């Protein structure tokens, strides 16, 4: 009977919904302490953005010093809106193409990345609203070499070109209310040309979920999954931008029903979602805003529009939360270490996962300053919003001495890999090294 008593206890525990104590997988490791921070800081490929319009060769482009200054206020994204008004019936002149390249150069120098959109008009009273399909396709071919050459600082391309502001609605040449397959065909040609024009690592955003379903012949059964995400397939490379966020019950025509919403809620776990508010409404309250930002995995928002909506968020005390949580916000919750093993529990407190390719490295620096770099077999794009991910690292064999360990999450592009502006900073206190872009994990002594 003495032997049976522990068994009975286990059975009783299971019957009341409890489980016997599980063995601690980290009992032989030293626990590391990390403190979270609410500090707002710039991180690559996420957050509120600043819009910049470039209308002509003489127009003001973004300066590198401006980009660097904006980083101090938490901005790493710039929306570059290139207006081709002067070229609606001609090739884009070389001087304007050079202007586009200059903007990318200045972003790279200043430490920012670009959301890019091309359009022909920014006033619905100024017709025609866009160029013909022939000229649009020609202009896409002209800017393709620039987009390909600037893969490193191109964050995402909004489809653009069609309609006033490039928002695919008020259009002269592409049918304002397409319904049949034939009426969608010109827009499909534009989307295909854009997918060809941008590097395979980058996404193209459409203005509504309906456009993706109609142009790509997809349904809810075709939503992106973890197995199909972040591939070079067209469906995996098409995201969305909502430029009337919370403006009405259907975001001013962005959605036409539950199917549209379901598609974006699912797809945006793996594709870039962003945009702006366009009109104050009853739907702009903080509780509704935070719910939609979470449901649709928002990565970026316009910091300049609509001011009334942003002002309401300040009044209702959610603006700072939105500011911190747009895109990813990664923080180490727990850490464990031994001479041969490092385990990190990293929680994503943001609305979305990182979306573009991202490196992960363990940096080990000895007392003499010698650095060892180990690439980690992890993909930060799978560190989903609201989820704690485990990074379990086998440490290399080290000789006796003192070592400092860092986690580096660099941009994989060679031009940016060693630039700290483009490495992800963790939302923990006292870990960030701004000179290297490394996050300090621990110092260990090997005996």
Describe what this molecule looks like in 3D.
The chain is an alpha/beta fold. It has 2 domains: 30-37 and 328-446, Immunoglobulin-like (Sandwich); 47-325, TIM Barrel (Alpha-Beta Barrel), CATH 3.20.20. 26% of the residues lie in helices and 22% in strands. It is built from 10 helices and 17 strands. The protein has helices spanning 4-15, 64-71, 94-110, 133-149, 181-197, 209-216, 258-267, 286-295, 307-315, 319-325, and strands spanning 30-32, 47-54, 77-83, 113-119, 154-158, 204-206, 238-242, 273-275, 300-302, 330-337, 341-348, 361-366, 371-375, 388-394, 401-408, 432-433, 438-446. An 8-stranded parallel beta barrel has the order 2-3-4-5-6-7-8-9, surrounded by 4 helices. α2 (64-71) runs parallel beside α3 (94-110) and α4 (133-149) packs parallel to α5. The radius of gyration is 25 Å and the shape is globular. The N and C termini lie far apart (49 Å). The model is unreliable at 1-18 (pLDDT under 50).
């Amino acid at each position: 009977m003495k032997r049976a008593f522990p068994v009975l206890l286990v059975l009783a525990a299971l019957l009341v919904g409890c489980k016997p104590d599980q063995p601690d997988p980290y009992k032989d490791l030293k626990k590391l302490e990390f403190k979270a921070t609410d500090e707002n800081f710039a991180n690559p490929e996420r957050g509120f953005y600043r819009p910049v319009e470039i209308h002509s060769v003489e127009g003001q482009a973004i300066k590198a010093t401006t980009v660097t200054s904006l980083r101090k206020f938490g901005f790493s994204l710039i929306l570059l809106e290139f207006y081709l008004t002067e070229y609606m019936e001609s090739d884009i002149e070389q001087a304007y193409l050079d202007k586009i390249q200059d903007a990318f150069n200045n972003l790279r120098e200043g430490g920012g990345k670009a959301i890019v959109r091309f359009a022909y008009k920014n006033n619905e009273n100024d017709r025609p609203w866009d160029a013909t399909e022939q000229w649009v396709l020609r202009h896409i071919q002209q800017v393709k070499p620039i987009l390909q050459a600037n893969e490193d600082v191109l964050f995402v391309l909004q489809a653009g070109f069609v309609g006033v502001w490039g928002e695919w609605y008020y259009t002269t040449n592409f049918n304002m209310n397409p319904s049949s397959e034939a009426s969608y065909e010109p827009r499909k040609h534009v989307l295909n040309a854009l997918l060809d024009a941008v590097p395979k690592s980058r996404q193209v955003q459409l203005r509504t979920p309906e456009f993706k379903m109609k142009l790509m012949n997809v349904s809810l059964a075709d939503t992106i999954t973890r197995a199909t995400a972040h591939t070079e397939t067209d469906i995996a490379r098409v995201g969305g931008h909502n430029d009337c966020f919370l403006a009405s019950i259907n975001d001013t025509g962005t959605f036409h029903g539950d199917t549209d919403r379901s598609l974006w809620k699912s797809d945006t776990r793996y594709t870039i979602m962003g945009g702006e508010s366009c009109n104050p409404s009853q739907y702009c309250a903080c509780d509704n805003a935070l719910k939609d930002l979470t449901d649709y995995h928002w990565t970026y928002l316009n910091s300049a529009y609509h001011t009334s909506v942003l002002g309401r968020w300040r009044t209702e005390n959610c603006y700072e939360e939105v500011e911190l949580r747009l895109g990813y916000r990664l923080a180490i919750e727990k850490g464990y270490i031994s001479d041969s093993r490092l385990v990190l529990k990293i929680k994503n407190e943001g609305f979305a996962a990182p979306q573009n390719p991202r490196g992960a490295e363990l940096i080990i620096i000895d007392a003499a300053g010698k650095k060892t770099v180990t690439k980690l077999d992890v993909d930060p794009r799978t560190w989903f919003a609201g989820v704690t991910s485990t990074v379990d690292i086998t440490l290399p064999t080290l000789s006796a001495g003192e070592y400092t360990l860092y986690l580096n999450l660099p941009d994989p592009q060679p031009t940016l890999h060693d630039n700290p502006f483009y490495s992800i900073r963790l939302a923990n206190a006292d870990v960030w090294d701004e000179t290297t872009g490394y996050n300090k994990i621990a110092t260990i002594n090997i005996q």
